[in-house]
Amino acid sequence: MSTKLETIGLAKTYRETPALLPTDLRVAAGEFLTLLGPSGSGKTTLLQMISGLVEPSAGQLLIDGRDATHEAPGKRGIGMVFQSYALFPHMTVWDNVAYGLRMRKLPRAELAPAVDAALAMVKMQSFAQRLPSELSGGQQQRIALARCFAFRPSIILLDEPLGALDKKLREHMQMEIRRLHQALGATFIYVTHDQDEALTLSDRICLMNQARIEQIGTPAQLYDRPATRFAADFLGHSNLLDGVVERMADGRVALRLGDGPGERLVLIGPSPDLPAAGAASLLVRPEAARLTSPEDGALAGTIRQVIFVGSDTRAVVSLGQGNEGTQGTDFTVRCPRELTPRVGERVGLAWDHSRATLLTR
């Protein structure tokens, strides 16, 4: 797959404070890439430099192989959708969508078909003569998308476009955006701090932290095999157990919790990818774990809380007695609905070792 956009050492500094450290990123043609991270991680700064709204302090931006680092925003062939819909309140829906095409001096004979096609794409043809004030939030967001799609840009940037919508409408619009991406075949770069949104929409996720890229990969790669503790903790619910790695005589690898002679977590091995020794954290997702009898589990604890979430039940197990180094640690397990754990019950914890991840940084 060909490269549509590439950044080489792209960076931005404000008064000696880095908003984005030198960043190398390659985005394939037709890809849906999500920039995910907490506030201040650099994701919006990166998006704004791609759009041309912010001038980089260093580095290079390539679009279709050409140097677009200092190119004017209007010459980059990029469409952008913001969280604020930015619709003209005095214009009809049709005129709002047509506005950008008129600014680009599209011939009159081509303008009407282009606007009608964009409205059809977001299923808003019947609202063409309404004003923005007569639309719901979701409908206004559709018009903002249509306005962007109307001139058929090859790259579309979306800066938290669903942030103002309620949960149900947000989930519906996620499916619509995914459908539109497939229909257009354009390259989408999407900014969000919502991990569920990133997992739902993306071909790949670029996880950002402290003005740099933390990890890039498919949603499954970041969720199942995070490279760092931050990645594990930020994406999805994580059970993280800290300890020291020990390689045993028979080739298996164990994680000793705490400094004393506490219980030992044995990881399936041998594996050349596992370290011989050193500090590490074991990541176990709640759905990879299960409740057992106390004597059969790798760890034991007491159920502190039971949370019903519809499709399943979450049991929050407080670790402590008999588990050196885990005092005060909670461990969450997703249980099938037919299982009815009780608060105060003493249980064991076991998990599928092939789905656990050892993190050394």
Automatic annotation (TrEMBL):
Keywords recorded for this protein, A-Z: ATP-binding, Cell inner membrane, Cell membrane, Membrane, Nucleotide-binding, Transport
Span of domain ABC transporter: 5-235
InterPro entries in alphabetical order: AAA+_ATPase, ABC_SmlMolc_Importer, ABC_transporter-like_ATP-bd, ABC_transporter-like_CS, Mo/tungstate-bd_C_term_dom, P-loop_NTPase, Transp-assoc_OB_typ2
GO cellular component: ATP-binding cassette (ABC) transporter complex
Pfam family, one: TOBE_2
UniProt GO molecular function: ATP binding; ATP hydrolysis activity; transmembrane transporter activity
GO biological process, one term: quaternary ammonium group transport
Domain of life: Bacteria
Name of the protein described by the UniProt record: ABC transporter
Organism of provenance: Pandoraea terrigena
